[in-house]
């Protein structure tokens, strides 16, 4: 194979995280930059998200997904960012050499820094083990969204949705607006899995039933879905005998979770956090391998695109400092760990050298909560829900008083 081309920065993925990273890197003066995108257009999942709710923090406007993507795409074009479309990265080595394939052939690149922004994928039927036949009419929610919004096809007329993730609830509204009947949204947990604003705007406003503590026990039908059996579950998630309920439908949508796309990360030997499904990163968004950074939904599943763009921006700043030898390599690494009420924390490692923001998810819904990061600081929040990320700002001035022997900090969550 030919000798790899030398570039300063490679960004893998041109969704909101990748575009934000590329724009910030260009603005900071990184000229030799390539964005690799396997789709035929930039924007990631945003072009099929035609609903509003994007950009409320980033642009102080209520934008649709395509509008939000267009804002960043135009920024990238104005800065002459090289976006290589229809290009799939096949492999990343620990020495920051990547292999990409496109219609132009196979090429290798030796990079001073790499930013991972590959996003996530949906959990399919096979991952949740629903019994029954294998008829047509079973879709993931994102697949159905693409069919309607991009391809112009209706997946069905009478629909049951399993899972109350944000995409599932948004699709319940979208299908209703297109004339379909959404029979119910079933959620195995005793609380909704997505943002409360989507429960109100997508389900309550359209009188779509939300069945908490329920799941699909069986799919019926031969060539096409004819119906599903719903069952109530106990606090351990086990079906309650005698609670079976048959719902006639021709389509079942699955909104049962997202999985960060970290095959390339694992290939490079990057340590993965079991709680988030993404790489462990420090407050510069650098992974366990020097010079490789991670941001957006490949790092952890976000609920707001504005957070994704902010992470892309932060990862680009980290890459810039790495390329110019300005990252604090010899400084202390302070591991952040959550108590039994915390589901995940990103970043997982702090340098104590800069202000940072902790992205936190809790395990269950709570009312007023107090978050305490060791003895450094305390923050109060009016509520905490698993479907909504908590952002906890940690100012730089909180660190100087920290004992030099401290190697980890515990994040405590107490319900008032």
Give the arrangement of secondary structure elements:
Blueprint: E1 5-12, H1 16-27, E2 33-36, E3 52-54, E4 63-64, H2 65-78, E5 82-84, E6 88-92, E7 97-102, E8 105-116, E9 120-122, E10 131-132, E11 138-140, H3 141-151, E12 158-162, H4 166-177, E13 181-187, H5 196-203, E14 210-212, E15 214-220, E16 227-232, E17 245-248, E18 251-254, E19 258-260, H6 263-267, E20 292-294, H7 305-323, E21 334-338, E22 342-346, E23 349-350, E24 356-362, E25 369-373, E26 377-381, E27 390-394, E28 408-415
Parallel strand pairs: 1-2, 1-8, 2-5, 8-20, 10-15, 11-18, 12-13, 12-18, 13-14, 21-28
Antiparallel strand pairs: 3-4, 6-7, 7-8, 9-19, 15-16, 16-17, 21-23, 22-24, 24-27, 25-26, 25-28
Structural class by secondary-structure content = alpha/beta
Q: Which radius of gyration do the C-alpha atoms yield?
A: 22 Å
Q: Please report which band the strand proportion falls in: under 5%, 5-15%, 15-25%, 25-35%, 35-45% or over 45%.
A: 25-35%
Query: What is the CATH first-level class name of the largest domain?
Result: Alpha Beta
Helices, by number, come to 7
Task: Give the domain tally.
Answer: 3
